[in-house]
Specification:
Length: 382
Amino acid sequence: MSVSDPTAAQLRVGITIGLSSPSETLWNNGIKQNAIYLAETLKGCPNVASVVLVNTTPISLAEGVSWDVQRWPVRSFADCKDELDVLIELGGQIDAQATDYLKQQGTHLVSYCCGFEYVHAMEAMIFRRPSWGYNLFINQRYDAVWMVPQVDHISRHYFQTLRRQEARPVPFVWSPLVLDQRCRELDRPAEYAPRPGPRRLSVMEPNHDVVKFCLYPILIAEEAYRARPQDIGFLHVANALSLANESPEFVSLMNHLDLVRDHKAAFVGRFDTPRFLSEFTDVMISHQWENPLNYFYFDVTWLGYPLVHNASMCRDLGYYYPDNDVPAGARMLLQVLEQHDEQWEDYRRRQRTLITRHLPQNKSVIASYANLLAELRSKRPI
């Protein structure tokens, strides 16, 4: 099937999610946002007739969900299993029986990989983190394996060997839809605007694993504070309350920092990004290890906040420093303190222009997914 053929049959596409609660927020993690942004993209493809989010857990949908079901309809797998030409397994896994049923219907099955599964598997085994136990199911009947580009370098061969299928990078998509909705719910404006006085620094890494951890951003803030203490008012570190309460190693390290000794730092719990930005932040500092593209970077810069980061796949966003170079990160932070507010409105406009390459409306992104679907449907299901 060619996407340029107007007579080609349009596809009914499902994208899996795994609800743990009917009232689940889209800010629990990035997976459901990923499903929604992918759905927005596929709806623009000329060879797609419909897109539905498919819940693979027993959670009842009778009470509704926390997002617009007119725009992003949600159905159970049982209710829509006979009405799909393609099922993209993204946020919820189907089992061998469900896979066999879909194959009998001629449905194509895609594994859409947007997590650092190699890292998660490694940490589960080394650090005895419960993950799947003895009941791990690796589906080896996918018709295609698609992965977001930032996981290619570290996880491609993990995917390919276990799934027995070539893994291909696909365009990363993001949209301000969810961000804008949350911002409208806040009591104060969420977009960046200059304010008088010393700057409030923030770090908001998840701290779930080694991929995005708060230590290097804290050290960047510390180096800048030693150089210009009068320009830094406070440092908030989110998702770090358990570290401060339960990790003696973390507490011991932090007690060596001037920011902590001068009572200019707080280690707090979990917040959604827009609220944290609006209440606590003038500058965001970030660090990643094998995660060079992430929704968080787009959330922060779309709202106009200066982002000091080392994400190499979006180095033109925010204020980039390379690798693990703390002094370079501190120099970028000092540049922000000195110069950012002179051009803050131009900065926000520039960030939004750069991010358009990842939006669901981008014609190149739409064409890429349309071609991927056409290629998929040209092959018989495995």
